UniProtKB/TrEMBL annotation:
<dbReference type="InterPro" id="IPR027417">
    <property type="entry name" value="P-loop_NTPase"/>
</dbReference>
<feature type="domain" description="AP2/ERF">
    <location>
        <begin position="121"/>
        <end position="199"/>
    </location>
</feature>
<dbReference type="GO" id="GO:0003677">
    <property type="term" value="F:DNA binding"/>
</dbReference>
<dbReference type="GO" id="GO:0003700">
    <property type="term" value="F:DNA-binding transcription factor activity"/>
</dbReference>
<keyword id="KW-0805">Transcription regulation</keyword>
<dbReference type="InterPro" id="IPR001471">
    <property type="entry name" value="AP2/ERF_dom"/>
</dbReference>
<keyword id="KW-0238">DNA-binding</keyword>
<protein>
    <recommendedName>
        <fullName>AP2/ERF domain-containing protein</fullName>
    </recommendedName>
</protein>
<keyword id="KW-0804">Transcription</keyword>
Amino acid sequence: MKELAQILWIGGSPCAGKSTLAVTLAQRYGLTHYSCDDALLLHLRRSNPSTHPMLHKLSNSSWNELWTRPVERQIREELAFYREELPLILEDLRAFSPDTAVIAEGTALLPDLVAPLLHDRRRGVWLLPSVSFQREHYARRPWVGDILRQCADPERAFDHWMRRDSGFADTVEASAKARDLSVLRVDGTQSVEEMTAIATDVLCLSAS
């Protein structure tokens, strides 16, 4: 479709390297970077509990409440959260000039939601971390410890968190493959430069 034809899409699981890849590609190819994470607070201000119930429910939950939910429920509610947010993301993207090449990245960019927007399936890629990479990556981040200390059982909360992300990744991978969309598995063995080269090829980018 012609609308949003200038957008490149990077979706996938949390902590898979989406932002790093998007920033690198934006700098290299003169693209405008749009981060779904950075826009979340603005989306909350533009939404309301009646039309975006899951968006408000999860955003107003404590860390303990979030990570003590059953894992399957976490996955289900996270998907609902992003489905509610996507129309707000699309409002932002439609505000860009059609002449502005944009690279949009975020976990909210689910394959089944983005696929109808693609005029060429090569305009999108989804990054998914291996289980071991995901756990090691999270464990090294100081802010993760800050969150877990607010939970009644930090060890159980972390296990639920990781299982949630793993299950979410499996759901995204199945959805992307069902639509013949590109998936990149991230396991920590490839450098940022190597991942950038792979994504450049997948997205058919070239220097102007």
